[in-house]
Give the backbone structure.
Amino acid sequence: MPNNTRPAYYNFIILNKKGIVVGSHNVKEIGQVAKEYGTSVTHICKVFSGLQKTSGGHKFKKVEAKSLSNNLRVETFYDHPTIESPFGGKISISNFGRIKFDKYNITKGYKGIETTGYFYRRIGINGKQYLVHRLLRECWLGRELKTHEFVCHKTYLDGRHRDDEGCHRNWLCDLRVDTNAGNHNDEAKQVIIKEVPEEYEGKTIEHGAQTYTLNVGQIVTCAALAKLTGVSTDYFNAAANPNHTRRKCAGFVIEYV
């Protein structure tokens, strides 16, 4: 009898119109990919099987792990749609997050820390500071991102999403565009209170539809604490982040749930 079984899981790559790999995913992420690229799982599967050539303006191809790693080793530079290089022409950024001003000046930017406590690559161009991952996504899209659009980094349990200096890795295949709510959703992040300043202990606060009593062990949102104290939500998120140097915020010691 013929063997009609197939592996339950496989990887696939996404290619743009020029045939350049712009993403890599496991099939378990196919629903999220379909939403991001404005298509459907059904149409992506039709591309897999050859019933149609593209879906959402992209090609989708199943690959083995070895083939996937080989494709992603090809470095390709994309011109930015608006930012001029001080050496003439437009700056360009590669799918590995390296910025090229001209053939003699290529850099990956410098390590910068945000108020949330995470490390990201930044670059100074013509007197202005930019986040490298945001510029890279603009290069690939061929337009500047809108104010409500944010670039999200894919994370991996084995730490592959970090570079050698602990920054989020700026590989194009790890980046996607989302709204602020989809990216950080800082106001909805829950923390557990480990230490309460005396002035707030036992106090009851309301935020949205929730009511919280501030005691050790209480689970609360950073936004609720920010509303009570008048301190920015970003600072509470930084205090809850174990990688940040800030250990307290407004006297509270908190950890992410």
Summary: The chain has three domains: 11-72, 77-183, 186-256. The domain at 11-72 is CATH 1.10.10 (Arc Repressor Mutant, subunit A). Confidence is low (pLDDT under 50) at residues 1-9, 65-71. The CA atoms of residues 160 and 206 lie 40 Å apart.
